[in-house]
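Incident review: delayed structure delivery

Summary: a single-chain prediction request sat in the queue longer than the usual turnaround. Root cause was a stuck worker, restarted by the on-call engineer. No data loss occurred. The affected request and its eventual output are reproduced below so the record is complete for anyone auditing the incident later.

Affected input:
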Amino acid sequence: MSEIIKVENVTKSYIRDNFEIPVLNNLTLNVDEGEFIALMGPSGSGKTTLLNLIAGIDKPSKGKIFVNDTEVSNLSESALAKWRANNIGFVFQFYNLIPVLTAFENVELPLLLTHLSKSERKKHVDIALNVVGLGDRIDHYPKQLSGGQEQRVAIARAIVTDPLLLIADEPTGDLDKISAEEILVLLDRLNSEFKKTVLMVTHDPRAAEKAHLIRNLDKGELV
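Output delivered after worker restart:
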């Protein structure tokens, strides 16, 4: 199985009030294509920072990051924006749905940046919503959906462009136990059936159990 992510000797620090705050320290991580990895560790250990670096939202202070042989850490901001749109699907703890848009319209948003026709966009959105089990909720607004359903809409939005990677940051953190389990089953299905590589940050050991591999971060280092 080929490596899809290579994080090579990455260090990340932030400057606040003239003080350097280290977050990641000379970190190396390799992820195989089709893998499902859970990143765990205490608050402030660098989990979300690592996700953001891999997803091209932030850049390392030192080191290199490759995703599918593209050196993400070396791309310009404009090139990164285009690369993210084509390769990364984001799932957050809070669903970030636009309340005045229907489920269909929320999922369609990433496709508005592509050259797809209206009919092609509709086909993609219908497929994505059916994959997450909400094909009968396309005209519902977020306020008409449960928390679990909102998160499924958010996942449909994340997969509608058929991304290379699914980046999930505490995807069950705002859900009750039953809804959380449904989301984890869905992520597992996207990984096993649709062969999506999944990187998930979680504090929940039950959520981490769905992953193939659990990696723990502590004080910016993998342990």
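Verification: The mean pLDDT is 90.
Action items: add queue-age alerting; document worker restart procedure.
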